[in-house]
Amino acid sequence: MLPEITVTELSKKMAAGEDILLIDVREPVEYEICALTSVLIPLAEIPKKLENIPQDKPVILVCHHGFRSAQALQYLQQRFGYKNLLNLKGGIHAWAEQIDPTMPVY
User: Fold this and answer.
1) Alpha carbon distance 31, 88 (integer Å)
2) Coiled-coil stretches, from where to where (predicted)?
């Protein structure tokens, strides 16, 4: 089972000002529609952008529904030994539904 975080848990961490990094693995066109404050690294670019993914602080991976971010998490864990990653359960869509109903959905 992949380590994950719910949108409610993430919202609490963000409100508390915790030192976390959000990495969005969607495509730029999706990111333009809606996004949390995050670093955009599309899934296909993950292998080329490892220097932008720290291993010394919590990193939460985000996508539309949580599937691509789960792929990125598995890849980073299995290939590079990352132990600090969480997948956002339900993705940005769950955030829009449960936390910020003003956020555009697609």
Assistant:
1) 15
2) none
- Cβ contacts of 51 within 8 Å, gap of 6 or more: none
Tens of pLDDT, residue by residue, the chain (106 residues): 799 999 999 999 999 999 999 999 999 999 999 999 999 999 999 999 999 999 999 999 999 999 999 999 999 999 999 999 999 999 999 999 999 999 999 9
Angle, vertex CA 23, rays to CA 97 and CA 13, nearest 5: 60
Q: How far apart are CA 77 and CA 39, in angstroms?
A: 19
The catalytic residue among 7, 40, 62, 63 is 63
Residue 17 burial (10 A CB sphere; 0-12, 13-18, 19+): exposed
Domains, in order of start, for the chain: 4-98 (3.40.250.10)
Q: Between helices 91-98 and 7-15, what is the axis angle to 10°?
A: 70
